[in-house]
């Protein structure tokens, strides 16, 4: 749960950010479990400005747990930022929204610099990761040269691969330098 101890500086006395309408400020909206995108979309449809910080993570495949997929998920589970003002009451009754975090009977104000920083970080390009899990490849050298493979994971300079070998899928490790892209 987000509160003042998470350095988001909830306080009713902070000034609003210049880019927002007069009397408006960023507030934290708590959503129902796994309803962050739904709540954001519903708030956007009502005309509220929102920000849902996202990040990338690896999740296991449902059928093959050793296979990982890169998925985008909310940075703060069950929370998003919304620009609140004098008409904030409808926010609490929006589908997907559980409640606004309050301070002195009004939505707690978030330092606009915190939200601006999160937005700037969100816009940075992701570092190149050519060997994401699930990427098809083949080995350019070594005893399994030319064999088609699929990347399972990469740690440091070695990749764990799944290779069709001797009539079945086998897991092998190989240096990342030995991998070449496959169409």
Quick summary of this structure?
The chain is mostly beta strands and 183 residues long.
Shape: elongated
| Secondary-structure-derived class | mainly beta
Mean pLDDT: 82
* Count of DSSP strands: 13
The major pleated sheet works out as: 5 strands, antiparallel
Q: Calculate the terminal CA-CA distance, rounded to whole Å.
A: 45 Å
Strand content: 35-45%
Low-pLDDT residue spans:
1-19
The number of helical segments is 2
- What's the gyration radius in Å? 23 Å
How helix-rich are the residues, as a percent range? Answer: 10-25%
Q: Biggest sheet: strands side by side, in what order? A: 12-11-10-9-13
Query: What is the N-to-C succession of helices and strands?
Result: EHEEEEEEEHEEEEE
Secondary structure: elements and pairs:
Elements: E1 25-31, H1 36-45, E2 50-51, E3 54-60, E4 68-74, E5 79-84, E6 97-100, E7 102-103, E8 106-107, H2 112-122, E9 136-139, E10 148-155, E11 158-165, E12 168-175, E13 179-181
Which properties best describe this structure?
37% strand; 5-stranded antiparallel β-sheet; disordered N terminus; 183 residues; mainly beta; 4-stranded antiparallel β-sheet
